[in-house]
């Protein structure tokens, strides 16, 4: 992966003051200077990346684990139609990481791809959770992917409340705009996870230098901790967020992943000084 920034290069005098053991081979910091082992890489940066994996899985499964109920309930879709739409979305979500990995390795670099994908997730979640009037939606929207989903949930829940009909009580289903808005938001998440999934773990492994004995051993531990926390990021939405969505509020159920992903985005921006760029 190419460095994220070219920046001012370290002077020759400063480089000579550094021992060979202090500089990480073939790595630079966020300003394009030789990476110093004591200040960048290893667990200092990889711990944040593990947190990113947890946030991504919590957001993805917080959305996907209960989608059939949302489609057949809040959006009024027949169960068979909801299942078919969910399968199509899962298929797209499974294929897009191939494209995301190719773009990251060939053009953007992993860190840029991670940042852009986080923004798409946040866009989908926050707007999805914002309680905005239907008539003024385009004047007020200001977030990214997970934001759109939250707004979509609010619009659906507010428009599908039961209203008295002529001879009976019925519920007015969401209109076509709300359904299209929801699926636009949903596929925005598929694109976002397509960028995050192939990059996060590989970018975490980049923080460990194979030629250093300690870091080489630590890399094995990184994969163990990654798997452990990654699984935790899947279990939390399955056991907690689905309950919140079904029994408390769809807006809150989609809003929690939005907050988690927003925190990860800010942490990613703060941790940039600790990262080795290979």
Structure description:
This protein has 278 residues and is mainly alpha-helical. The chain has a single domain (55-272), classed as Growth Hormone, Chain: A. The protein is 68% helix and 5% strand. The chain has helices at residues 12-17, 43-64, 67-72, 79-108, 110-129, 137-140, 145-159, 176-205, 213-247, 250-270, and strands at residues 23-28, 34-36, 162-164, 169-171. The strands form 2 sheets. It has a two-stranded antiparallel ribbon with strand order 1-2. Strand 3 and strand 4 (169-171) form a beta hairpin. The radius of gyration is 22 Å and the shape is elongated. Residues 1-9, 131-147 and 159-170 have low confidence and may be disordered.
Brief characterization of the structure:
This protein has 278 residues and is mainly α.
Defining traits:
278 residues; mainly alpha; Growth Hormone, Chain: A; two-stranded antiparallel ribbon; two-stranded antiparallel sheet; 10 helices; 4 strands; 68% helix; disordered N terminus; Protein NRT1/ PTR FAMILY 5.10
Set down the secondary structure blueprint.
Blueprint: H1 12-17, E1 23-28, E2 34-36, H2 43-64, H3 67-72, H4 79-108, H5 110-129, H6 137-140, H7 145-159, E3 162-164, E4 169-171, H8 176-205, H9 213-247, H10 250-270
Antiparallel strand pairs: 1-2, 3-4
Helix pairs in contact: 2-8, 2-9, 2-10, 4-5, 4-8, 5-7, 5-8, 5-10, 7-8, 7-10, 9-10
């Amino acid at each position: 992966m190419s460095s994220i920034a070219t920046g001012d290069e370290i002077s020759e005098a400063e480089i000579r003051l550094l021992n060979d053991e202090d500089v990480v081979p073939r790595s630079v910091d966020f300003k394009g200077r030789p990476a110093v082992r004591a200040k960048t890489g290893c667990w200092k940066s990889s711990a944040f990346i593990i947190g990113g994996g947890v946030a991504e899985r919590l957001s993805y499964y917080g959305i996907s684990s209960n989608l059939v109920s949302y489609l057949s309930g809040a959006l009024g879709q027949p169960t068979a139609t909801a299942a078919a739409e969910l399968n199509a979305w899962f298929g797209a979500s499974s294929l897009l990481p191939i494209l995301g990995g190719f773009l990251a390795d060939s053009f953007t670099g992993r860190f840029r791809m991670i940042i852009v994908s986080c923004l798409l997730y946040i866009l989908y979640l926050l707007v999805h959770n914002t309680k905005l009037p239907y008539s003024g939606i385009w004047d007020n929207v200001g977030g990214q992917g997970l934001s759109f989903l939250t707004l979509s949930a609010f619009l659906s829940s507010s428009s599908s409340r039961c209203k008295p009909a002529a001879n009976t009580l019925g519920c007015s289903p969401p209109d076509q705009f709300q359904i299209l808005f929801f699926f636009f938001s949903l596929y925005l998440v598929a694109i976002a996870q397509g960028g995050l999934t192939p990059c996060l773990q590989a970018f975490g492994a980049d923080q460990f230098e194979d030629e250093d004995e300690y870091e080489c051993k630590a890399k094995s531990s990184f994969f163990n901790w990654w798997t452990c926390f990654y699984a935790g990021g899947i279990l939390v939405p399955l056991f907690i967020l689905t309950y919140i969505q079904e029994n408390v509020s769809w807006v809150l159920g989609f809003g929690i992943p939005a907050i988690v992903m927003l925190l990860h985005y800010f942490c990613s921006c703060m941790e940039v000084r600790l990262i080795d760029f290979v």
